[in-house]
Write a structure and sequence with these properties.
By secondary structure, this protein is an alpha/beta fold. 40% of the residues lie in helices and 17% in strands.
């Protein structure tokens, strides 16, 4: 009896193996024909996995999409589904925007800001999502400078009373190490095609012309930031320039008094506001997370073995290191 069962199992496995080989052969044949005909296969757009955060009515398919943006805003930070966190944010907002079951979006921000261009790209993605459905911004502990720039794209802005926000301004920094070079006997030798080509060379003092050029660029970028705040918050630019748009940080309570936000509350209050604006009182709140990936699982198994040990590492830096020559939307206390 055992031999008979073993024989049946062997036949089944053999048939399954043959079927698998046949299917793979056909797929390879189709791919080869596609390449021969000049057909280009596009990679599917990654979709974020939905994790239930707060359940609504079971029979209602309506959902509120929770998207989080944490940490420094930078195009050089890797994403979970794409090459950068900026592209991740764009893809997540697009997924929520195009999903007919998603009635509103809650964008939770806990960020000091970051690169000017990266913040502007995410802001534009938020405004595109807002054009289709309500976007409620919830500012967590920190939504300053570039974090607030992104927040301006929302329909309704909410913060905690103790949230740090504001810091409307632009910063570029460099280091001057000329005196250090003189002490140790080093000299910088530069060959340049124009007088401004090494404008942030720390081995020499900046000329008045160079300082004027950099300051002009900073003020142009600041004017764009100011224009975004003025337009989105319906506040006069001159009033902002002469009062709160001088780089100062504000608490959530002060930001409400200055009309930089629309309300105070907790994250659950943001869910309630999204349900209200989306006309979906029974909607389930789902958080967008990284999609299922076999590579992620294999990596986890590879990292965990019998010789594995648990290590606790402190961060190398308590504040982000600003790269010389880049423009940032960051509070002054983040500039070392």
């Amino acid at each position: 009896m055992a031999d008979r069962k073993f024989g049946c199992l062997s036949i089944f496995l053999f048939v399954a193996l043959c079927g698998s080989v046949f299917i793979n052969f056909m797929l390879a044949l189709v791919a080869l024909r596609g390449f021969a005909n000049g057909t280009h296969f596009e990679e599917p757009i990654p979709r974020f996995r939905e994790v239930v955060v707060q359940r609504g009515a079971r029979l209602v398919p309506d959902r509120i999409a929770l998207i989080t943006m944490r940490g420094l805003i930078s195009g050089s930070i890797p994403g979970n589904v794409s090459e950068s966190m900026v592209e991740d944010m764009r893809l997540a907002l697009e997924q929520a925007r195009d999903d007919s079951h998603v009635k509103a979006i809650v964008l939770e921000i806990d960020s000091p800001g970051g690169e000017v261009t990266a913040a502007d790209q995410i802001y534009n993605a938020v405004t595109k999502a807002r054009a289709r459905k309500p976007v409620v911004i919830y500012m967590d502990s920190l939504a300053a400078s570039g974090g607030y720039y992104v927040a301006c794209g929302g329909k309704y802005l909410m913060a905690n009373e103790t949230t740090i926000t504001g810091s409307i301004g632009v910063i570029i920094q460099t280091l001057n190490y000329e005196q250090l070079f003189n002490k140790i006997g080093l000299a910088s030798v530069v060959f340049k095609s124009g007088k401004f080509k090494d404008i942030l060379n720390g081995a020499r003092p900046m000329t008045p012309e160079e300082k004027e050029l950099i300051q002009s660029f900073v003020m142009q970028t600041y004017d764009k930031f100011l224009g975004v705040v003025s337009k989105e918050r319906s506040l006069p630019a001159d009033m902002l320039r002469n009062t709160i748009a001088d780089g100062r940080i504000l608490s959530g309570k002060d930001a409400l008094n200055a009309k930089l936000i629309d309300g105070l509350g907790q994250l659950e209050d943001a869910y309630a506001k999204a349900r209200q604006l989306g006309n979906a009182p029974e909607a389930t709140v789902v958080k967008y997370g990284p999609p299922f990936s076999l590579a992620r699982i294999f990596r986890a198994f590879g990292e965990f073995n019998g010789d594995s040990k648990i290590e606790l590492q402190l961060p190398k830096e308590l504040v982000p290191r600003l790269e010389s020559g880049r423009a940032y939307f960051l509070p002054s206390f983040y500039a070392p």
